[in-house]
Structures are given as C-alpha cells and as structure tokens.
Amino acid sequence: MVTLTERFNRFLFQRAIKEILNTPAVNRGSNPFTALTMVHQRDVLPYLLAIKTFAYHTKPDRIVVVADPSLTQSNKTLLKKHIPILEIVEAEKFRRPDLPIGGTWERLSAISILCAESPIVQLDADTVTFDTPAEVLACVRDNLCFVIRSEHDTEIQHLDIAALHGEELLKVSQHVVAYAEAALIKLGNWQNLRYVRGCSGFTGFGMGMLTPSALDELSRNMRSLLGDKWDKWGTEQVSSNLLAASSPNAYLLPHPKYCNADTLATETVVAHFIGYTRYVSREYEYRAKNAAQMLKGEKV
To answer: In 10 A of CB 239, how many CB atoms?
Structure first.
C-alpha cells in the first residue's frame, strides 16, 4: 500500500524532474559501447535523468532505446531532441517464438542481437549516476559482463547452490523466480553455468558474450521445465543473471558503490531507485535536482 508520505514524495519528484528538460543535449562520446534502456511512456523524464547522468560520466558512443509500445511519437521526438544520437528501436522487433512476450524480455532479446556489435550497458530508467563508474568502464574496456548486486552479500554461485536457495525460497514463496532457481540444476549443461541473484536493472554484456541462439535455447529449456510459469514476470531477470554470471570472468560490481537506493552510501556512484525504494524518502527528488545543476554546469 502506498503511504501518504510516498505520494507526497512522488509529487515532489515529478515536479523536480521537469528541470531535466532544461539541461544540455547528450553528445556522442568516445567510449566504444552501447548504453541501452527499455523505455515506457511513464518513464520518459526519469530516463532522461538516467541517461544524461550516465552519459555525462561515461561518454558512450552509442545510445539505444527499446521503445515500449506505450511510447508515443511526441515522446520519441522529445527523446531525440535531448539525445540527438539516439537510436529508437521498437520492442516488437525483438520478439521471437522461443521467448516470452512482454515484461523486459524484448530488452534482453535486443541485447542478445546488438552486443554482436559492441559491449552493452543496460541501465533502467530509474537509475542515477553520481560519479564516474570506473568498474563499469573497466568491464567495457576488458569486454567483461558485469552484474549489480541485489544485496551486499550476493555472490556468483554454482547452480547446485543456487538451486538449493530456490528450493528454500519455495517453502515461503510461489514466485516464478523461486521455481526458476530451483530448476536450474535440471539444465543439461548446469555444471558449466553460474548464477547470481543480481538485478538486470544495471548490467553489462561484453561484445559477443550473449547470442540470440544461447538466449533462445535457455528459454526453450526453462519452458520445458516450468511450462507456462516461464511466461511470468521475473524470468527475464533470472535469464540475464544466469547468462551474465556464466560468461568468462564475470564481474560483480562492488556494493554499496553500486546499489539499490535503500543502501546508499557516501561512496555510491550508481543507484537504482527500484520501485520499493523510490519514494520512501525525498532522496530521488534531491538527486534529480543535483543532477540538473551538474548538467547545467552549476555548483551543486
């Protein structure tokens, strides 16, 4: 249930975020990677906050939006005004028979195709970058996949350990993620794979580290184990975490330098204002105001 305080904080944020429209447009950067986000109509202004702060500190040479069907032509025109180099691709283009439809599956499908051309950094529209994410830039340089931790003690695991966690979770939850994690050990090549309970809201794939065929095969195998449950919300994150963690020398971003907004620290450089954290305080509003000042060259 949304509290009165959260409603008020959301109102204050929505008022503050409009100042992002008065900040300079994003120029093409010199770092050879793609910053990719799936954007819904309700997320247009938060996305501008996310991408402008991220691009300010990382200078990507390519920016892609996977357009949710809700995105209107006026939304797209506004985005192009603020990001002249922006490539907008329609989510429907990335639907394939072996993959679920909706949620963020089209985003992962797009990554599987576009990372043949360059490393991809996937950032949700509710992220904010406060300072240079050196570890992310190092992963781009070294062509490594990375994952943001969901909690401070999250680690990459062998699938037998991850499956045990899923079995324990099933005792208290019927969420599809629990079913999916419990089933990981039933994958035919499970000994060669790794898993991490990270968040696909800020993750990276090195060039060539994810392919459409690998994603389709995983989805087919998981559907054979879970049936229609595989089409529910949450399975994209399981897939992203599994495939990123299984890549060579996969890197877990240090916490709380990269974290959800409920564990912000002085050293945080990228924060994910994921739903349950977004309006419990005025932090998101304050960060939006600070970002607008920074982008305009004003003293913060």
So the answer is: 24
Within a domain: 300: no
* Amino acid, res. 93: K
Q: Is residue 30 part of a domain?
A: yes
In a domain, 41, yes or no: yes
143 in a structural domain? yes
Its domain, for residue 36, covers: 4-295
The CATH code of the domain that includes 251 is 3.90.550.10
pTM, to two decimals: 0.96
Q: How many structural domains does the chain have?
A: 1
In the structure, what pLDDT confidence band is assigned to residue 298 with cuts at 50, 70 and 90?
confident
* CA–CA dist 10, 117 (Å, integer): 38
In 3-state terms, what secondary structure has residue 33? strand
- The label of the residue with tokens 């943001």 reads 148
Buried b / exposed e over 77-104, threshold 16 CB at 10 Å, is eebeebbebbebbebeebebeebbeebb
Looking at every residue in the chain, the average pLDDT score rounds to: 97
Helix (H, G, I), strand (E, B) or coil at 226: helix
CA–CA distance from 251 to each of 146, 149, 203, 239, 269 (Å)?
5, 10, 10, 16, 17
